[in-house]
């Protein structure tokens, strides 16, 4: 049997810096846990544009379709801001999501105790928080037609269309129910069925899938605006939240801030299972390329490292090893390891990106 395969796309800005720490961790699992991966590295975003004139080459796209998991760092930066929309770095990421048909975006919002003071909310509201937002990623208003800006009389009109088919709703609902079964067994579905027909259909289909396939999971429904309020009022009431592309974009960023820093947030985007049962999968930190700190050794690699932990759990069926890695991160934070984004101005000297990698590797060693 060959090893499971990973395509690493470090991308731009701090992407390569944080991904370098993930590579060390992948090597550690190979050496110390006999969990070996066939790893290859390629270009995406501005880095791919510089070499190929496109933000993702056809060859790289083809490899992404073949491997068991793709790990991506970040794309974009000021150097590319004036490029034509069709070749902007972000288009590389959108192409991956679209062609791999990654319809289910998993964004955990987990509050590590050691960082509870960092949240914008009171410690008792976020301490111990562990929720998962499942966002539909390939349909809805970001993709619906008609779209565009056109002239009506003397003024311009901007149009986007929210469109969902039953099957698009059903597959992301299944993804949320499956996850809930492995967690707290609760799903809250969010839409705006009070004012949007697509919301009425969303609620109908989620209810139908629940009744016919997942009656053992607790299901509730909430209007997305109330969901936003509840997320900052009492976030621990939730286990898994499932919602559409637009509301998911907003709600997952809102939930993200409950946990403190952008440098801590992983994500997974999953598609339908391949013949071997593994879903097509892309793992990436939530943050961008952070041009303001690129090349300074200041980037926090934890979001990218926790994205690899999600790959261990969701692509490679290595839940115990994923937990080992997450516990190692938890331990170094409890011991006081902090990159600059996790410190206030009075809190002493931060450690560098590489030093954070060092201490996490030490904690992994100590876990054996
Ligand atoms: P950003 O996430 O890059 O940075 C926002 C702030 O958070 C910055 O102050 C940055 O220094 C800080 N930050 C982000 N990640 C950090 C980390 N790991 N450690 C420490 N601090 C961190 O968002 P932005 O500034 O709005 O965007 C910068 C570029 O990234 C843009 O070109 C944007 O289009 C792109 N972007 C890419 C992605 C992606 O690749 N998925 C996501 C968002 C933004």
Automatic annotation (TrEMBL):
Its main location: cytoplasm. Mg(2+) binds at residues 225, 249, 253. NAD(+) binds at residues 77-90, 288-300. Keywords: Amino-acid biosynthesis, Branched-chain amino acid biosynthesis, Cytoplasm, Leucine biosynthesis, Magnesium, Manganese, Metal-binding, NAD, Oxidoreductase. InterPro entries: IsoCit/isopropylmalate_DH_CS, IsoPropMal-DH-like_dom, Isopropylmalate_DH. It is an enzyme of class 1 (oxidoreductase). It catalyses: (2R,3S)-3-isopropylmalate + NAD(+) = 4-methyl-2-oxopentanoate + CO2 + NADH. SUPFAM superfamilies: Isocitrate/Isopropylmalate dehydrogenase-like (SSF53659). Pathway: Amino-acid biosynthesis; L-leucine biosynthesis; L-leucine from 3-methyl-2-oxobutanoate: step 3/4. The record marks 142, 192 as: Important for catalysis. It is found in: Cytoplasm. Its cofactor is Mn(2+); Mg(2+). It comes from the Bacteria. GO terms for cellular component: cytosol. PROSITE patterns: IDH_IMDH (PS00470). Its EC number is 1.1.1.85. Belongs to the isocitrate and isopropylmalate dehydrogenases family. LeuB type 1 subfamily. HAMAP family: LeuB_type1 (MF_01033). NCBIfam families: leuB. This is 3-isopropylmalate dehydrogenase. It comes from Litoreibacter meonggei. The gene is leuB.
